[in-house]
Every structure is written in C-alpha cells, then in structure tokens.
Predict the 3D structure of the following.
Amino acid sequence: MKGMGRVATVAAAKRMGQIRELTEKIKRFRDDRDWLQFHNHKDMALSLMLEAAEVLEHFQWKSVEACRKHVEDNRAEIGDELADVAMYLFELADNLGIDLPKSIESKLRKNAVKYPINKAKGSATKYTRL
Ligand SMILES: [Mg+2]
C-alpha cells in the first residue's frame, strides 16, 4: 500500500521523540537529587539487570496459564517493574552517549536481514540455523 511507508516513518519518528523526552525526564529526576555521582556505567548495567530480574520474579515457578492469570491480576505492578528496566536502560544509553532510538532502528534493520520473513515467519529457530 502506497503511503504506508511514510505513515510508519512518521510513527517511528514520534516514538523516537517520546523516548528522548522520557530520557530527559529521567535525567531531570536524577539530577534534582544529585544522583549522577552514583550512576557509573557498571552500577547502571547492574541495576538494569536487577530490575529485569524483578520482572522475571513475577513468572518464576508458574505455568504458562498461571502466568497469564498473574498478569491479569498484577498488571500495574509488572508495569512498574518494566518501567524500572526502561528507566535504567534509557539513562544508561544516554550516559554512554548512545542514541537508543537510533540503535533500536539500526538493530531492527539488522534483525530483518538475519530473520527474513520468508524463512523466519512462524519459526523460533535461531538465525544461524534458518
Ligand atoms: Mg523494581
């Protein structure tokens, strides 16, 4: 469909702008508290993984069906944990001088080459085995 590419590009640009805006809010929150002094790269990467583990805790020892029910009952709490992950991720990328929206767009293009639709659709096989 002609014009869909432009719609997708505008939507992607909007998302990138939103990530940049959120990153600025996160940095303002950090700087209002003078916490940059604690946010070295190692501890930021560590904190990112600790928060990711808090997401994982929601699903530990649960069946697929129990996970589904748990999500229904705990969506707000899981959202908080995902927000923690995203906030560390966005700030860490910024601290490292990485433009995260650009990196995501770039990685999506690389993944599209690794996982062409005609080979990867409906398959969970790793790209090295496609
Ligand atoms: Mg947390």
Residues 51, 54, 81, 84 surround magnesium ion (CB under 6 Å).
